[in-house]
TrEMBL record:
The lineage of its organism: Eukaryota, Fungi, Dikarya, Ascomycota, Pezizomycotina. It comes from the Eukaryota. This is Uncharacterized protein.
Length: 241
């Protein structure tokens, strides 16, 4: 082992990290962080990882300016601000949130600029790897502990379509994708356990009546007739059974 600085953390040789990343590709982000500490900017470029805030912080604190500058200069797709949903409040003055509320911009999970990349004009972001090659097995195999850098917009609705509770709960985002709702309805209709799971979720959000109607349909098909609404409010009655 060699030391990066007299008082800093001990780091391995660059070739050791390179071999580690080749043998265990799922550890390339940990290797990238080690590169930021040790200043191995050439190996960092070889890893081809997405820009990560914590790696940038490590590079800045350890004086790895080449890696820090590369992360901060990474292209970030800009987005313009559009129409935002008017907030609504309950009887206690608390703001209510729905699965389809729109703040006027896309909530991004990777936000290294910490401003959601909001700009006057929209610029297309660099797309993530599609579901092919390394991503295809994720459609039929167990999800790894650390997901590869792929576009999850395919995995989420497929998990909902088949009513896979574990996969869907792990992959889902605070706001639904445009086509995710229909897949959830299909999953609820065909999977009783998925319907029960959804029935345990918060039903106070706006626009959730479609989900409730699907849940009621699945329960009625299972002879739970108490879910059939007979009063004036029949908005949750299923359209199709």
């Amino acid at each position: 082992m060699t030391s990066h600085t007299a008082s800093g953390p001990e780091t391995a040789e660059e070739n050791t990290y390179r071999e580690l990343a080749q043998r265990y590709p799922q550890m390339k982000y940990q290797v990238a962080r080690a590169c930021a500490v040790a200043g191995y900017d050439k190996l960092y470029q070889e890893l081809d990882v997405l820009p990560e805030t914590h790696i940038a912080e490590e590079a800045r604190e350890c004086g790895s300016t080449a890696i820090y500058d590369q992360i901060m200069a990474a292209p970030v797709g800009k987005q313009s601000v559009g129409y935002a949903t008017t907030p609504e409040f309950d009887d206690y003055g608390e703001e209510t949130f729905g699965l389809w509320d729109d703040p006027g911009f896309e909530q991004r999970s990777i936000d290294i600029t910490e401003d959601m990349s909001v700009d006057r004009n929209a610029v297309e972001a660099t797309p993530l790897h599609p579901i092919d090659g390394v991503g295809s097995p994720l459609l039929y195999q167990r999800l790894p502990l650390d997901l590869p850098t792929i576009d999850e917009d395919v995995l989420i609705p497929i998990s909902a379509y088949y009513g896979d509770i574990d996969r869907y709960e792990r992959l889902r985002r605070p706001k639904m994708l445009p086509y995710e709702l229909n897949c959830c309805v299909i999953g609820i209709y065909h999977n009783t356990m998925f319907a029960i799971w959804w029935s345990k979720q918060s039903m106070e959000t706006k626009g959730i009546c479609v989900i409730r109607a699907a849940i009621n349909a699945r329960f009625i098909m299972n002879n739970v007739l108490s879910r059939a609404t007979t009063g004036d409010d029949k908005s949750d009655n299923p359209y199709l059974i």
